[in-house]
């Protein structure tokens, strides 16, 4: 890639990281879409997106934890089955033609629900989720995360919010940690793919780190809950479009 292309990709990824990290996401789906736009080789896209996910989700996990916005019990309940499932999914290659449109449509439906009643959802008292629900849900999301090359946050966030398992800000803290663990597992499940990481990776890492710092600074305690929910809705719209049209 020439220098101008690298700069453009880095700037777009920094913006994506800032947007996604406000709601605890790592941004893998956006990074995949950006790389596809610039015709990056498919073998390079997946490990690069997961590697960048580690940076942004790592920053988010730390900042939300420092701000007291991480429900560790809820995180561990979902991660207990999600992490091994993400490891398994990371080693499986499945044609995306079947599940991409379906998952994209589900994400758009979740986004629409969040845009319709953000104040109502933000004001609800959290209710606990049982292990009988969290463990199988975590396994399914972890498998999807491994298969798609993402951290699974776009699947977990709307479930936590829509079912009232945690409030918006602590959802971001849970999701950041969830994405970090799943991204590690997904890369480990297909460790040979790391050989395809681009030489420009340090530049991209620096770009998403800056975006992640800004986004987590805004999301950890400076945006009101309704805005966080609307931000999540926007993330889901973007991710759904990527899954359907990319």
List the helices and strands and how they pair.
Layout lengths: L2 H19 L6 H10 L4 H25 L5 H19 L8 H18 L1 H5 L8 H18 L4 H10 L5 H22 L11 H21 L3 H21 L1
Structure explained in plain terms:
This protein is mainly alpha-helical and 246 residues long. It has one domain (3-245). It is built from 11 helices and no strands. It is globular. The mean pLDDT is 83. Belongs to the 4-toluene sulfonate uptake permease (TSUP) (TC 2.A.102) family. InterPro entries: TM_pro_TauE-like, TSUP/Inactive_protease-like. Pfam families: TauE (PF01925). It is a multi-pass membrane protein.
Short structural description:
This protein has one domain. Helix content is 76%, strand content 0%.
- Which percent range fits the helix content? over 70%
Main sheet attributes: strand count, strand direction, barrel closure:
none
Q: Could you give the count of β-strands?
A: 0
Question: Pairing-aware structural class of the strands and helices?
Answer: mainly alpha
Number of domains: 1
Give the overall form: globular
Q: Termini separation (Å)? A: 21 Å
**Model regions low in confidence, pLDDT < 50 over at least 5 residues:** none
Keywords summarizing the entry:
246 residues, globular
